[in-house]
Backbone:
C-alpha cells in the first residue's frame, strides 16, 4: 500500500515537470499544476479509465482541463502515464511545431480531448461530453449490456467559475441530471491580479447546489479525502458533482506558493532549487526516477480495460448486430451509405416544387426530409425553436427522453454552442444549434473554437438581416456575416431559396473537416429557376445564376434575400450576368479556371448587393467596383420600408451598373 509520503512523491513528479518546462520555455503557468498535482494523482492513477496506447478508445473516460493555462499539468499526466508524449516533447513546451503548446490544443498531443484556452469553455465542453455519453448510452445500451458507460472528469479554476458561460452550462447540467460528470474546482483563491476574494465572493457551494449538483468539500492536498469524494461522486447517478478542493497554488515553492507570483510566470532558477529541496526531489531537471514512472504507468491497466470492453462489445455484436454496426458507424463519423443518393433525390424534389418560402422554413423542410436518415443528428435551439424552425416531426426532447435527439438549451447561446463542441468531440453525434444571427455574438468565441478544432458543428442562424423588420437595430445583424466569413475554417452559407438551402445542409452534413454556419431568412424568398448544371454548381459556393444577354459588360454578385433584387435588375439590363455566391469559402476552394469562368478578371464593372456590412465584398468587386449594403445599424420598421430607407433596392442596383458601364 502506498504511504502518504510515497503518494506525495508520486504527485511531486507533476510539480517538478511543470516548473522545469515553464522555466525552460521562460513562459507559462506553474502554479496550477503544482497546486492540483495531488488531485490529478488520485484521479488519473485510481479512477480514470483510459488506454495510453489507444487514446481514441471509444469507451474511455474523458478528461478536460478547463483551466487550460495549467497545460503542463495535462502534459505531465500524459507523459507519465505512457502516452506518446516524450520528455523531449515536454522540453519543447510552448515552442514552434511542438506537441505541447501553451494551452492544450486538440489534435496536437494524443490524449488531449479538447482545446481549452478561453476560460469556462472547458467545463462547457465537459457538459457536452457528458450529455453525449448519456444520450448515446440511452440510444444503444441494453438492459443486459451497457456498452456506452464512461465518466467525464473536469478540472476547473476560479476563472472558469467567474466566466458567465459556467452559469449557463452548469445550470443546464443539473437540469439534465448528468450524473457522470465530475468536476474538481481548484479553490486556491488566487488569480492573475492577486487574491480573488476582493472580486469573487460567491458562495460556490450554494450556487451549485441551486443548480442541482452534488457538492463536496475536500482538502485538495489530502489524497484520501479526494479519493472518498470521487467514490461518492461516482455513486450519485442523478446529479453532476462538484468537488471543491481547497489548495495552495504553487505548492512546494517556499517563497511563491499561495501567491499570484507563481500563477503565470516561471519560478526562477533559484526558487526552483529551493523548491526541489523543499519537496525532497534530488533529481536534475526533467529527470524522473524509474520507480516514479512505474507508479504512473497506465499502459497495462489501460490495455486490460479496453480488452474487457472489447469482449463486452463482441457479446453486444453477437446479440445486437444491427445496433453494433450502427454504433460503430456513428463513432467513426461516417454517413449512411445511401445518404448522398437520398439527399440528392430530395434536392430534385425540392426543385420540382419551386416553392417561394422563407429559407428558415426551407431549412425545416430539409431537416424533416434528412432527419429520419440521420439518427446521429442532435439538434437544439436557444429558446427559439419556433422561430429558428429547428424542430421537425421526428424530434424528441432529451429532457423528456434521454434517448431523444433534441435539446432545449434555453436562453444560453454561448453555453449551447460550447456544449455542441463537446458533443461533436465526444463522437457519435452531429450537433446543430440555433439562434438569431444577431445573437451569434453571445456565442462568438465558441463558434471560433469549433472552427479552431475543425469540428463538424452546424450553427444555424435565422433572421439574417434588416429584413426581420420591426424588432429594430438591436435584433438586426449588420456585421455578423462578415465576422463569420472572416473566421478561418468556417464555411458560411447564406442561401437564396429552397434549392440553395438544401444544398447548404448537404454541404454542412458531409463536411468532415470543420463547422458550418447556415444563415436563413425570416421573410419569404422567391424560387429561382436553374438548370441541372447550375444546381450542381451551387455546391461550389458561387455560380452563374443568370447568363448575360449579349456581350458581358458587368457582373452583379448577391446572396440570400438580395438575389431577388439582382434578378429584378438583370431583367432591366443587357450585358449583365448574375452570380449567386451562397458560400464564398467554398468558391475560393475551387480551381482558378472555375473562378475565372464565374468572375472573369477582365470584367471590372462589378456590383455586389447584400443587406449586411459592405466591407466584406470589396475583395470580389475591387476598389473600382460598387457595393450596395449597410454601413450603419438598422432601424425599426417593416422590412420593405427598411430596404428602401437604406437604398438596398432594384433601382440602386440598376443605377450602379449603368454608371459603371456608361
Residues:
Amino acid at each position: 500500500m502506498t504511504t502518504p509520503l510515497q503518494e506525495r512523491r508520486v504527485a511531486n513528479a507533476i510539480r517538478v515537470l511543470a516548473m522545469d518546462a515553464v522555466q525552460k520555455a521562460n513562459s507559462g503557468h506553474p502554479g496550477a499544476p503544482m497546486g492540483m498535482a495531488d488531485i490529478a494523482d488520485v484521479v488519473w492513477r485510481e479512477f480514470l479509465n483510459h488506454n495510453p496506447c489507444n487514446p481514441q478508445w471509444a469507451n474511455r473516460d474523458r478528461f478536460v482541463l478547463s483551466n487550460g493555462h495549467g497545460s503542463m499539468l495535462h502534459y505531465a499526466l500524459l507523459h507519465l502515464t505512457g502516452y506518446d508524449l516524450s520528455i523531449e516533447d515536454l522540453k519543447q513546451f510552448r515552442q514552434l511545431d511542438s506537441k505541447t503548446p501553451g494551452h492544450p490544443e486538440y489534435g496536437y498531443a494524443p490524449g488531449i480531448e479538447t482545446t481549452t484556452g478561453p476560460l469556462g469553455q472547458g467545463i462547457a465542453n465537459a457538459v457536452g461530453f457528458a450529455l453525449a455519453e448519456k444520450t448515446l448510452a440511452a440510444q444503444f445500451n441494453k438492459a443486459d449490456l451497457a456498452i456506452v458507460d464512461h465518466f467525464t472528469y473536469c478540472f476547473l479554476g476560479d476563472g472558469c467559475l467567474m466566466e458567465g458561460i459556467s452559469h449557463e452550462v452548469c445550470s443546464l447540467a443539473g437540469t439534465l441530471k448528468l450524473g457522470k460528470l465530475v468536476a474538481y474546482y481548484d479553490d486556491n483563491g488566487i488569480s492573475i491580479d492577486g487574491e480573488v476574494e476582493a472580486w469573487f465572493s460567491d458562495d460556490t457551494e450554494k450556487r451549485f447546489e441551486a443548480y442541482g449538483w452534488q457538492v463536496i468539500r475536500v482538502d485538495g492536498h489530502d489524497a484520501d479525502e479526494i479519493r472518498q469524494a470521487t467514490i461518492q461522486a461516482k455513486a450519485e447517478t442523478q446529479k453532476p458533482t462538484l468537488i471543491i478542493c481547497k489548495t495552495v497554488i504553487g505548492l512546494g515553492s517556499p517563497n511563491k506558493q499561495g501567491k499570484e507570483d507563481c500563477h503565470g510566470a516561471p519560478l526562477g532558477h533559484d526558487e526552483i532549487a529551493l523548491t526541489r529541496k523543499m519537496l525532497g526531489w534530488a533529481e536534475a531537471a526533467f529527470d524522473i526516477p524509474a520507480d516514479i514512472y512505474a507508479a504512473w504507468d497506465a499502459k497495462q491497466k489501460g490495455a486490460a480495460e479496453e480488452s474487457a470492453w472489447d469482449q463486452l462489445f463482441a457479446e453486444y455484436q453477437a446479440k445486437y448486430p444491427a445496433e453494433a454496426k450502427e454504433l460503430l458507424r456513428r463513432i467513426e463519423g461516417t454517413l449512411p451509405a445511401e445518404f448522398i443518393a437520398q439527399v440528392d433525390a430530395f434536392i430534385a424534389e425540392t426543385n420540382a416544387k419551386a416553392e417561394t418560402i422563407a429559407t428558415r422554413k426551407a431549412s425545416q423542410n430539409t431537416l424533416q426530409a434528412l432527419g429520419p436518415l440521420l439518427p446521429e443528428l442532435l439538434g437544439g435551439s436557444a429558446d427559439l425553436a419556433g422561430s429558428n424552425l429547428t424542430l421537425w416531426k421526428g424530434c424528441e426532447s432529451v429532457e423528456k427522453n434521454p434517448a431523444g435527439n433534441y435539446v432545449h438549451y434555453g436562453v444560453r447561446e454561448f453555453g449551447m454552442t460550447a456544449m455542441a463542441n463537446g458533443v461533436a468531440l465526444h463522437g457519435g453525434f452531429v450537433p446543430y444549434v440555433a439562434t438569431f444571427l444577431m445573437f451569434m455574438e453571445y456565442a462568438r468565441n465558441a463558434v471560433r473554437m469549433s472552427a479552431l478544432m475543425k469540428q463538424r458543428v452546424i450553427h444555424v442562424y435565422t433572421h439574417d438581416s434588416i429584413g426581420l423588420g420591426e424588432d429594430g437595430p438591436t435584433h438586426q445583424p449588420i456585421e455578423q456575416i462578415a465576422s463569420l466569413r472572416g473566421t478561418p475554417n468556417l464555411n458560411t452559407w447564406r442561401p437564396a431559396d429552397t434549392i440553395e438551402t438544401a444544398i447548404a445542409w448537404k454541404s454542412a452534413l458531409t463536411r468532415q473537416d470543420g463547422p458550418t454556419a447556415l444563415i436563413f431568412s425570416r421573410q419569404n424568398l422567391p424560387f429561382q429557376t436553374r438548370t441541372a448544371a447550375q444546381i450542381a454548381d451551387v455546391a461550389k459556393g458561387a455560380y452563374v445564376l443568370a447568363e448575360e444577354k449579349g456581350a458581358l459588360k458587368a457582373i452583379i454578385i448577391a446572396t440570400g434575400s438580395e438575389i431577388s433584387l439582382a434578378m429584378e435588375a438583370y431583367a432591366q439590363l443587357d450585358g449583365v450576368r448574375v452570380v449567386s455566391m451562397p458560400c464564398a469559402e467554398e468558391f475560393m476552394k475551387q480551381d482558378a479556371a472555375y473562378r475565372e469562368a464565374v468572375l472573369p478578371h477582365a470584367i471590372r464593372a462589378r456590383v455586389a448587393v447584400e443587406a449586411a456590412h459592405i466591407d466584406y465584398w470589396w475583395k470580389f468587386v475591387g476598389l473600382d467596383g460598387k457595393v450596395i449594403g449597410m454601413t450603419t445599424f438598422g432601424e425599426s420598421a417593416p422590412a420593405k420600408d427598411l430596404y428602401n430607407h437604406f437604398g438596398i433596392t432594384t433601382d440602386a442596383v440598376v443605377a450602379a451598373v449603368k454608371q459603371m458601364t456608361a
